[in-house]
Amino acid sequence: MHKRLTVFLVITLIAGLAVASDGGTRSDLTPKDLQRVRSVTAPTTDFSRPENFEQLSAGAATVKKRVNRDIFSFSSANLSFAQEETFKLGNGLFTKLWVSAPASTEASDGLGPLFNARGCQNCHLKDGRGHTPAGPDDDAASMFLRLSILPRDDADRAALAAGAKVIEEPTYGGQLQNFAIQGIRPEGRMVISYADEPVTLGDGTVVTLRRPSYSVADLAYGPMAADVMLSPRVAPQMIGLGLLEQIPPEDLLARADPDDRDGDGISGRPNMVLDPVSGQREMGRFGWKAGAASIRAQSADAFAGDIGISTPLVMKPHGDCTAAETECLAAPTGEQARLGVSEAPDPVLDLVTFYSQNLGVPQRRKVGDPEVLRGKQAFYAANCTACHTPKYVTSRQAPIDAHKFQLIWPYTDLLLHDMGEGLADNRPEGDADGYEWKTPPLWGIGLTEEVSGHTEFLHDGRARNLTEAIIWHGGEAQKSRDAFANMPKSERDALIAFLESL
């Protein structure tokens, strides 16, 4: 733990961030503005009525459309007319289906050769949350397995020191690809089995959890490494990402307590990753373990890893193919010099990044409902806000005007937390160990069923409702989980009603 603290402090000093126990010093604010920000983001103690502006989850960017299945697919409300055009162009690329090369549609070829999806929208359907396979015939496009091994030699250790987040499985790469273009064999398929696990709450209510077990089958290129680490991933929802990107790092790092110096049992810490955009180590914000520091980097990784499409940021025209998969490496790519470098040359990545940055957050529902307010009080009393930080004010220096100086309510600290044995994938990623996960934002969580047609939660969709998701919490969240489990049913129901209002 002392080593973690030392590393954190060194990184903070290198980044030039002045982090103080009173909330940190923000270089984008005047002293007067800083005082205002600290006042407006202070935790509430009044649960008799909504807080000022609480209904506007994303400030002026909040979407106020009628709630239906498309509610996650609208742009931030405060974009200009010209920006709205850029957003729509990005939407066209986000929803397009890529085809294998060579093809007559030259601007759309280069798929694979191995892939998990043919387009971004296949994973993030309606820009919402992915789901577990509905049955043996489900193609599981919105869920896949990450693969890696522990470092084996000095070269592996040097790669990690230089910024590699993992050491990929030697034959199958960084993730299991369950699809392939014609003439190429898919790598294999993910196998999931569940075991029922009843849990008795304080009032005698029995909640049956489903504990998943993961394996692989039908491997086409030989066995995997004996020490392979498998980690499932369900595609997260897409809303509000650009605003999360503009929470000043000072405000996030000020909440980090890797040595638990305050003794509250919560020891969040950042995942400091090498960002290919800046070339510097920066705080990871995106992905289930905060493995990407910017939306552009996350988008480029998804193009390469999920679809097999190269971009100027990640030049991997054969996607996740490895040296052992020779037929994959021999397949033609979609790179064409006259169209630009990579299979998806600029401005493709620019437009998809802009689209991803500006998917709007819907406004809260029932914010003044008495049961919702009781549930909010229970949420605070259980100390859920220790990780799910309710609100921030974004940077005045945000490069997109729509993101500047907005009071937002994402309910996350974007830090890594030990979530206990039950949720552990035992697979390190960057600074994150096998027990740690980033606190996911909660805004929009109550609209999951409306948008995605299900109520599956957590990184692998094991929780079939919000109650199960809370009961799975362990590690640093154990006390909050126990507080929920020991509430009377009426209080638990109120807390769930609060979450469903987000």
Descriptors:
alpha+beta; 2 domains; two-stranded antiparallel ribbon; 15 helices; disordered N terminus
| Mass-distribution shape | globular
**What is Rg?**
22 Å
Report low-confidence residues grouped into runs of 5 or more.
Answer: 1-23
Can you count the helices?
Answer: 15
In total, the number of strands is: 12
Q: List the secondary-structure elements in sequence, H or E.
A: HHHEHEHEEEEHHEEHHHHEEEEHHHH
Q: What is the strand content? A: 5-15%
Main sheet properties: 2 strands, antiparallel
Strand and helix map with partners:
Blueprint: H1 2-14, H2 31-40, H3 81-95, E1 114-115, H4 120-123, E2 143-148, H5 154-161, E3 179-180, E4 189-200, E5 206-217, E6 229-234, H6 241-245, H7 249-253, E7 272-274, E8 281-283, H8 295-307, H9 326-329, H10 348-357, H11 370-381, E9 392-393, E10 407-408, E11 416-418, E12 436-438, H12 448-452, H13 466-471, H14 478-485, H15 489-501
Antiparallel strand pairs: 1-3, 2-6, 4-5, 7-8, 9-10, 11-12
Helix pairs in contact: 3-10, 8-10, 11-15
Description:
The protein has 502 residues and is of the alpha+beta class. It folds into two domains: 21-78 and 255-272 and 358-501, no CATH class; 81-236 and 274-344, no CATH class. 26% of the residues lie in helices and 11% in strands. It is built from 15 helices and twelve strands. The chain has helices at residues 2-14, 31-40, 81-95, 120-123, 154-161, 241-245, 249-253, 295-307, 326-329, 348-357, 370-381, 448-452, 466-471, 478-485, 489-501; strands spanning 114-115, 143-148, 179-180, 189-200, 206-217, 229-234, 272-274, 281-283, 392-393, 407-408, 416-418, 436-438. It has a two-stranded antiparallel sheet with strand order 1-3. A two-stranded antiparallel ribbon has the order 2-6. A two-stranded antiparallel ribbon has the order 4-5. A hairpin with a 6-residue loop joins strand 7 (272-274) and strand 8 (281-283). Helix 8 packs across helix 10 (348-357) and helix 11 crosses helix 15 (489-501). The longest helix is centred in the N-terminal third of the chain and has 15 residues, at 81-95. The radius of gyration is 22 Å and the shape is globular. Residues 1-23 have low confidence and may be disordered.
